[in-house]
Automatic annotation (TrEMBL):
It comes from Hordeum vulgare subsp. vulgare (Domesticated barley). InterPro entries: PH-like_dom_sf (IPR011993), Ran_bind_dom (IPR000156), RanBP1-like (IPR045255), RanBP1_RanBD (IPR045256). Pfam families: Ran_BP1. SMART domains: RanBD. This is Predicted protein.
Length: 209
């Protein structure tokens, strides 16, 4: 019987089982990729650059969802709006203070409204670390809508501190300067909601991993 020699299968013209003495694997593995599009760094502003942070604390926010349309008579329910840092921001010029909260990671707005002097924080039934309040107009989404919020903190101490700082902000917003501005706004038929439009908050872009 004649002996048959097995031929090695060659890939790309070379035998993968054999290597030349002068071959350098590292040099062969180097590939130079050039980007098709040159991306420039963009300075994304949050809209908070002209404000000072008076208060900041992690919390979970809820909003009361009331059925609309044909189901308007059905009972509403609380829905989670997000977890993140709730902040009290004071504008450097007008000195007005607003409440702003973003969802962690996505930075999407949960709440964005002035801390009106007429707002009332009420204890949430069944919890000593949660507060409820009704906001006449919230600007977290477009169009702005009235909202009933509930906020929950990690412990009683944090909830108590939030209420204390909330009341301080209300007093500052209800000061002489704020009162005079409200009178001027009425004369000019310029509602207070216009001020929030000036403080428009741009959503932070998500960074791709």
């Amino acid at each position: 019987m004649s002996e048959q020699k097995e031929e090695a299968v060659k890939v790309g013209g070379e035998n993968p089982e054999e290597g030349g003495e002068n071959e350098n694997p590292e040099e062969e593995a180097k590939v130079d990729f050039k980007p098709l599009v040159q991306l420039k760094e963009v300075d994304v502003q949050s809209g908070e650059e002209d404000e000072d942070v008076l208060f900041k604390m992690r919390a979970k926010l809820f909003r009361f969802d009331k059925p609309q349309g044909k189901d308007k008579d059905a009972p509403g329910q609380w829905k989670e709006r997000g977890t993140g840092d709730v902040k009290f921001l004071q504008h450097k010029e007008s000195k007005k203070i607003r409440l702003l909260m973003r969802r962690e990671k996505t930075y999407k707005l949960c709440a964005n409204h002035f801390i009106y002097p007429e707002l009332k924080l009420e204890p949430n039934v069944g919890s000593d670390r949660s507060w409820v309040w009704s906001c006449p107009m919230d600007y977290a989404e477009e169009p702005a809508t009235p909202e009933l919020f509930a906020i929950r903190f990690a412990n009683v101490e944090n909830a108590t501190l939030f209420k204390q700082e909330f009341k301080k902000a209300q007093k500052l917003n209800d000061g002489k300067e704020a009162t005079e501005e409200k009178k001027d706004e009425k004369k000019e038929d310029k509602p207070i909601e216009k001020d929030l439009e000036k403080l428009s908050v741009k959503e932070d872009e998500k960074k791709s991993e």
